[in-house]
Amino acid sequence: MFSTISAVVGGLGMFMLGMWLMSEGLRMAAGNTLHQLLQHWTRTRLHGLGMGFFLTALIQHSGAVTVATIGFTNAGLLTLERAIWIIFGTNIGTTVTAWLVAMIGFNFKIAAFALPLIGIGMLLKISQGEKAVAWLGQALVGFGVLFLGIDVLKDSFADLGAAISLDITTGHLATDILLFTGIGFLATVLLQSSSLMLAITMTALAGGIIGLMPAAAVVVGSNIGSTSTAVFSSFGSTAAAKRVVSSHVIFNLLTASVTLLILAPLLAILHFVQQLLVDVPAETTTLALFHTLFNLLGILLIWPIANRLVNWLEHRFISKEDELGKARYLDKHALNLPSLAMHGLVKETQRVAEMALKAAADSINFERLHPDLKKNQQYCEQIILAIGEYSHQLYKQNLPESVSEKLPVLLRINQYYAAISELAVMLNKNRGTLETTMASHIEAQLNDFYKDCLSLVSAANINDSGESDITHQMDSLESNYQSLKSLLLRRGAEGTLSIARMEKLLTAISQARRICQQSMKAFNYFQNSQFETDQN
What we know:
By secondary structure, the chain is mostly helical.
């Protein structure tokens, strides 16, 4: 008995190791391909479903695709409507695991093809360095190890089947179904892998440890438990992440609830159909069929209410802090994909630019004291601090040169916006202390100068895709500034303008000029670095 239990533990370990090697190898081999696929091939519901299915079937890890989708949503590359269909597609993608286990794990001599895969994969991994082919080699190793683990589990559960039975019954069908659903849910939460739980259930079913009805209930519970990976990843995350995760939980709960209500007749129908095709249908194949059918049922249930679900979720998890003082696009899970992480940093910088330049325009176009400018400055500082910390974490990754060269530039640009938001507060406060009346010719020249400043600040908006000759505008503004400064100094020397008031006016126009200088520098650095700002 001890040796059998040890074999079960070892088989589980081999399965998990194989899953990790395969998922990580395929993810690294794909590089930025995942970025491109999710961004450009999810424009419709069917495309989103297909992409979620394809990626999950490819890397055999629905949790990884879910977490990546959350990251793309945070980075502003995916809308909520696109993201939810990818998530729903991952559920269908998990059915491939069931069919691989059912068709290969129980019908072929696994060692005959698994061992050569491991050998070929390791040869590629060792000989190809860090190339994509080397990571594909690692994926082959993982695929082989995964099925060796299934082989060990199959033999071990066959031995345990004679001594142990989990066909527990309370005498009430509904209670039994809920009991095994709970077991599947808890086990998946603990293991953090619905694929592993599915493989365990199928091998236990093949070994006679558990019956078909309890096994089906366990699979349904495991489907609910698979949402825990996404839920855990959303802790402390943005509103966008929480909306995507909520859609995942709602979909799985809806699917599970309806499936559990019709579980017994559904299994009976499947078994009857199989008997029409084969004399002695394998229960593992029945379970694989059931797993596929109930996931497709979920798509049919969610399809007519998807738009209302999106609209409802769009109005959830909204707070002032999320909207203003908290980074929206910096997702920790995107750090493994530098291009995605950089896109999030650019989006966040554009957001800072919008806040800082609006504050600058409010302070230059002075009508009254703006009490919100100080809060705006604090929000900018919080986001810029988050950008700096995120950039530091990203810099620790193995970055391509195109990304590593742009990170310092992006930090410099954010420092310009930090200075702009601070100057906006100072200018607004300084202009609030000035008297309301002055000589008409001074007031007219001051108004012209501030209009030029407003025009330049507006032209320096990095969120606008159009080109702007901002350097020429700055040269013109500099000439106006020197002329206005000379006028104020002359009037102060003549005594027609008090020295105290002259100094305040000189400080105010100097602050406005510095705002324009910082705006021009940020704009030019952003344009010259050719950051990608396309939105889909």
